[in-house]
Fold each of these.
Amino acid sequence: MQYIKRSERPQLLATNQETWTISWVVYYRVGVEIVPPKKPTDSHWLKDEIRFLLIKDFHNNCGFCGESIPTPQSLTTRTSKGDVEHFLPKSKYPEFVYEWTNYIWSCKPCNEHKKEFYNVSYPLLNPCRKKDCENLMFSEDTGCYVLQERNRL
Ligand SMILES: [Zn+2]
């Protein structure tokens, strides 16, 4: 896993994050009103200004498996072999739906595999956290990546 240094939050997100987030928080957190809210259908994270900066930051590669993902042909097309993955899942952390640091550029198989997974006891490695990347070592004995134990006492 390659460490990804993230760009500054795009202006479009900075301007609209608060407004865009409200309906998601209402749906997942309040959701028990007399008239239940409809699930939000907006996906502004696919907007070019956001998605293409993310793709650039991740050097066109999946943040989880490192596979190269072809850049979408058109700036406006939604069909892509990659997804804007929410590291903290929308259903569990709706307040981070439009949080720039919560986006991982991911290939579709990795996104499919991860789905809504988030577990405090078994946290996923985050390619944008330097510490997570530094602790990951390739073991020639097993041919697998393993976490170093150096930070544990
Ligand atoms: Zn992947």
Note: The mean pLDDT is 86.
Amino acid sequence: MKTATIALQPPASVGLELEANRSLAGLTSIKIGGPADYFATVTHPHQLLRLVRWARGVDLPYLVLGGGSNVLISDAGVRGLVIHNRCRTVRIDPAPCCLYPQDERPFLFAEAGALLAGAARTSINEGLAGLEWAVSVPGTVGGAVINNAGAHGGEIKDNLWDVMLLDEADEVQIIRAAELEYGYRHSNLKRGESIQGGFGPVVLSANFRLSPGDGEQIRATAQGFLEHRRRTQPIEPSLGSTFTNPPGDYAGRLIDAAGLRGERFGSIEVSQTHANFLVNPAGVGGAKAADVVAMMALIQETVYQRFGVVLQPEIQRVGEWS
Ligand SMILES: Cc1cc2nc3c(=O)[nH]c(=O)nc-3n(C[C@H](O)[C@H](O)[C@H](O)COP(=O)(O)OP(=O)(O)OC[C@H]3O[C@@H](n4cnc5c(N)ncnc54)[C@H](O)[C@@H]3O)c2cc1C
């Protein structure tokens, strides 16, 4: 659908038109969020590169949105340009023997907008081990690389080889995984807990190094992870875990023990299935971002009063907050 014509548009060489005042709620897994001043969907990395370089040139702050599965977008929305990354190529590349004569493990190449679970499925179908844990994790490869996403004992950093990104100096760089200073849900590409549009680096693609294994076993492991998730996590719109686990404990256990399971604020609810998930059962038009923020504050305060533990947000607040 084409929206109203707007004055600010990139040149024809970028190959797309910006939309104005585009609602973002439907592009997030919790179905919450106000509008972006300007919005574009990119499907090819050259488009992404050209759009970001143009935005930098005209001083228009931008924010890349992957699967929207870790961001709470404010009700007031995002100032500047939101770039929805749908660059989704995934392929298996054999290791060039001239470069790696002693190591024949293949690479899985994925553009940053590819779904992480889809990339995991590609590797599983090829009988390659290493990404089975990711088969049930929502979002894109770009978001996962930035957050060091992980589940079932696996993390992005375990198999990531390198990342191609557009750095802040407008250069395309290949960065080895070891340079990203990975930790628990952390990398040095990750911006703060509450962010606006800016002019930061953009992840273009990633290479994972995977090991050939027993295809049946790999498939069964991934299936087991999927079934575990279906049993233990809610199906209503959410952002997954709201808080990171404090050392030696689980945020969900503390929230539950504080008596907050099922607690409601506006239309937002502490999930009955997993107390670290805040769910928006009504979907788009249901809860407000402000309800989520209020519920998070209530949880933090209650858990601190009961157990003396300060829960840290895992989800990132995005956009303009009053
Ligand atoms: C039901 C559910 C279950 C979940 N389970 C897990 C789990 O088991 N483990 C886990 O780790 N997480 C989990 N999550 C959280 C989420 O899936 C991950 O954090 C995921 O990696 C986020 O990826 P995304 O593409 O959705 O990122 P987004 O939410 O779109 O973005 C996250 C951040 O990354 C930035 N970003 C995204 N792509 C790029 C790019 N190409 N270049 C620059 N910046 C970029 C965004 O600007 C934003 O700051 C879950 C979420 C849900 C809804």
Note: The longest helix spans residues 289-307.
